[in-house]
């Protein structure tokens, strides 16, 4: 991620009337100065309007449902679409999306958007030479989602399907600007230092059986 965006502390919790909220607005103005310089160039090369950020974000999550083990349906079904996922995320993001998901059931659902997605950061730089241009857009997304992860035995490991949670994310999308037919793909996420820690994974263990009686052992 080129020049990562630094989210203001207390985002989505502070108001513009509070003292900390005023400091947040001043910091936002300083951070957007460089983005304004790259805005016109990227819009001319690739176009920002009609990015389809919400569609990309929702699509990559729905295509990450992985291998079903038949917890609710009663039979296994494979929903993993590798080709579709590659069209939605970059080569850097793909390993992070699929690592550790084998033999797990992931149930994710987008409930609603609490605030409209907003572009908060934009950068355009050349890789290796000035003609090899890449554009990166950081989008602030504040939404309500449901996420539940089950292990291969159908036991809940993380989250739950009953209560939705408010999620504030800073998602980075990238596009190769030289290619006129290129598309914006998810490149990564920015996790601020002040973000609250995630809920721990629920560890499941096998219940030990009764201890064998030495008198009942057989060869």
TrEMBL record:
The keyword Cell membrane does not apply. SUPFAM superfamilies: NTF2-like (SSF54427). Its main location: mitochondrion. It is found in: Mitochondrion. SMART domains: Tim44. Residues 51-191 form the Tim44-like domain. It comes from the Eukaryota. Keywords: Mitochondrion, Ribonucleoprotein, Ribosomal protein, Transit peptide. Pfam families: Tim44 (PF04280). The keyword Ribonucleoprotein applies. GO terms for cellular component: mitochondrion; ribonucleoprotein complex; ribosome. PANTHER family: 39S RIBOSOMAL PROTEIN L45, MITOCHONDRIAL, LARGE RIBOSOMAL SUBUNIT PROTEIN ML45. Belongs to the mitochondrion-specific ribosomal protein mL45 family. Component of the mitochondrial large ribosomal subunit (mt-LSU). Within the mitochondrial ribosomes, required to direct the nascent polypeptide toward the tunnel exit and position the exit at a distance from the membrane surface. This is Large ribosomal subunit protein mL45. It comes from Cinclus mexicanus (American dipper). The gene is Mrpl45.
């Amino acid at each position: 991620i080129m020049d990562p965006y630094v989210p203001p502390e207390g985002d989505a919790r502070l108001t513009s009337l509070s003292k900390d909220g005023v400091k947040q607005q001043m910091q936002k103005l300083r951070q957007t100065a460089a983005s304004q310089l790259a805005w016109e160039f990227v819009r001319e090369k690739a176009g920002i309007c009609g990015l389809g950020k919400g569609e990309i974000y929702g699509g990559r999550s729905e295509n990450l449902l992985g291998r079903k083990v038949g917890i609710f349906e009663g039979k296994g079904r494979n929903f993993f679409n590798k080709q579709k996922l590659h069209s939605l995320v970059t080569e850097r993001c793909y390993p992070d999306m699929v690592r550790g998901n084998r033999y797990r059931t992931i149930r994710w659902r987008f409930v609603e958007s609490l605030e409209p997605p907003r572009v908060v950061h934009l950068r355009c730089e050349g890789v290796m030479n000035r003609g090899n241009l890449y554009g990166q857009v950081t989008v602030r997304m504040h939404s309500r989602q449901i996420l539940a992860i089950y292990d291969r035995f159908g036991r809940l490991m993380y989250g739950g399907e009953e209560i939705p949670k408010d999620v504030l994310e800073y998602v980075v999308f990238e596009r190769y600007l030289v290619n006129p037919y290129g598309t914006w793909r998810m490149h990564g996420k920015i996790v601020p230092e002040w973000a609250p820690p995630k809920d721990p994974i629920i560890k499941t263990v096998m219940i030990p059986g009764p201890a064998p009686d030495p008198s009942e052992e057989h060869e």
